[in-house]
Amino acid sequence: MNKIIILTAPSGSGKTTIANHLLKHFDNLKFSVSATTREKREYEIDGVHYHFLNIESFKQQITEGNFLEYQEVYPNQFYGTLLSEVKSAWDANKVILFDIDVKGSLNIERGLYDVLSIYIKAPSIETLRQRLILRGTETSESLEKRIKKATEELEFAKYFDYVVTNDQLDRACRIVKFIVEDFMK
Ligand code: 5GP
User: What is the pLDDT of residues 83-102, one digit of tens each?
Assistant: First the structure.
C-alpha cells in the first residue's frame, strides 16, 4: 500500500523544521506541496512552499476533482493536497509527507493508504504565542486566528498515532525521526 506520513501542528510549533529534518534524512521522502489561497509570505516561493492559487482557480480544482483532501482552514482561506503531488511521489516510489491541518488529517481514508499520523504539540499556548511573535510573519489578527485554531485543534490530538511535544526542537526532531524510521521499514 502507498505510504503517507502526516505531520499536523499549529503554526509556530516547529513543524517546518521537523519536516525539513526528516527530508534531509530520508531520501525516499517527498514533501507534498499544498495548494492555498492565502497570501504568499515574503520568503515563500510559489511551487516550493505552496502552490498559490486565487479562489477561482482553487474552486476550479475542486470541481475537477483534483484534490485528495482540502479544507477551508481559515474563513475564506483554502488549503488542499493535490492528487498530482501524491501520484508523482508514489510513481517515483517515494513516501509522501503531508503538512496539513487536523480536519484534513482526519479525512484521509485510512483503508486506502498506509498512514502514519504525528501531532506536534507546543508545550503551551503561551509558548506558541511567543514563538509566533518572534517569527514575525503574522499580523495581530492572523496571530489571534492561529492561536484560536491551535487551542481548538488540541482536542483532536488523541486521534493521531503519535503526539510529540516540542519543548526542545532538536529532541522533537530526533523522536519524530525515530517514529518515521520504524514506519519506513
Ligand atoms: P500556514 O498558513 O501557517 O502555512 O498554514 C496554516 C494551516 O494550514 C496549517 O495548520 C497547515 O498545516 C494547514 N495546511 C497546509 N496545507 C494544507 C493542506 O493541503 N490541507 C489541509 N487540510 N491543511 C493544510
Answer: 999 999 999 999 999 999 99
Specify the CATH class of 3-184 in words.
alpha beta
Side-by-side strand order, sheet with 51-52:
51-52, 35-36, 77-82, 67-74
| pTM (predicted TM-score) | 0.92
Ligand 1 site, residue 34, Cβ cutoff 6 A: yes
Mutate which of 4, 45, 100, 128 for ligand 1 pocket (most atoms within 8 A of beta carbon): 100
What pLDDT digit, counting tens, does each position of 24-58 carry?
999 999 999 999 999 999 999 999 999 999 999 99
Residues 75, 145 contacting (CB under 8 angstroms): no
Q: Who contacts 25 (Cβ-Cβ below 8 Å, separation ≥6)?
A: 177
For ligand 1, whether the C-beta of 100 sits within 6 Å is yes
Domain boundaries defined on the chain = 3-184
